[in-house]
């Protein structure tokens, strides 16, 4: 596997989404913010998303979001369409990509790099079938803290990208050899991947 910096800058997009909750029991996730960066961490898209249903929990302590932030935001469909166009023919990098793609976005499995599912990371942490949180991966594998204050999707996208780049050579070499170095997504999320 040979790393070509120009190809990487053009073909990789790191993704992350921030959610709020809807429903009577505040347990149905709804996308409230979407962030995408290029291979170098430069912002490609960072937008709030107007909810399609009444929000019952903005998770303000974790997200910093309130109703006033989302009132004039682009609609879910507008953001979904824009994200679909931006990630088309790209390799997306992120943490728990099945959650990101569950917002009615499908993407070819071969073009996903999910740091939560990468077997060498999981083995290194000894987490077995448990999905390691991004902040734990970053702390244990890179020795840095993140998520201080509140969650930030740009920080999450960049952190996932840093983790990917730390293992890029081994990851891409395994894929080039015809092996898939990741666990499968949880049951029920298989339809997110083509």
From TrEMBL:
Gene3D superfamilies associated with the record: Ribonuclease H-like superfamily/Ribonuclease H (3.30.420.10)
SMART domains attached to this UniProt entry: EXOIII
Keyword annotations of the record: Exonuclease, Hydrolase, Nuclease, rRNA processing
UniProt GO molecular function: exonuclease activity; nucleic acid binding
GO cellular component, one term: nucleus
Protein's UniProt keywords contain rRNA processing: yes
GO-annotated biological processes: rRNA processing
Residue ranges constituting the Exonuclease domain according to the UniProt record: 11-173
Task performed by this protein: Exoribonuclease involved in ribosome biosynthesis. Involved in the processing of ITS1, the internal transcribed spacer localized between the 18S and 5.8S rRNAs.
Name of this chain's protein: Exonuclease domain-containing protein
Organism whose genome encodes this protein: Multifurca ochricompacta
């Amino acid at each position: 596997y040979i790393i070509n910096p120009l190809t990487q800058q053009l073909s990789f997009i790191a993704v992350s989404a921030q959610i709020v909750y809807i429903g009577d029991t505040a347990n149905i996730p709804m996308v409230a913010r979407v962030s995408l960066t290029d291979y170098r961490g430069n912002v490609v898209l960072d937008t709030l998303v107007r909810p399609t249903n009444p929000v019952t929990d903005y998770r303000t302590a974790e997200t910093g979001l309130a109703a006033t932030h989302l009132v004039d935001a682009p609609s879910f469909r507008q953001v979904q369409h824009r994200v679909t166009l931006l990630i088309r023919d790209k390799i997306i990098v992120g943490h728990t990509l099945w959650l990101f793609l569950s917002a009615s976005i499908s993407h070819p499995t071969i073009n996903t790099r999910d740091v939560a599912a990468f077997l060498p990371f999981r083995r290194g942490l000894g987490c077995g079938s448990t999905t390691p949180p991004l902040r734990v991966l970053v702390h244990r594998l890179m020795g840095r803290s993140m998520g201080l204050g509140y969650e930030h999707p740009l920080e999450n996208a960049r952190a996932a990208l840093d983790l990917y780049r730390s293992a890029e050579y081994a990851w891409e070499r395994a894929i080039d050899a015809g092996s898939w170095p990741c666990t499968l997504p949880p049951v029920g999320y298989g339809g997110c991947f083509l």
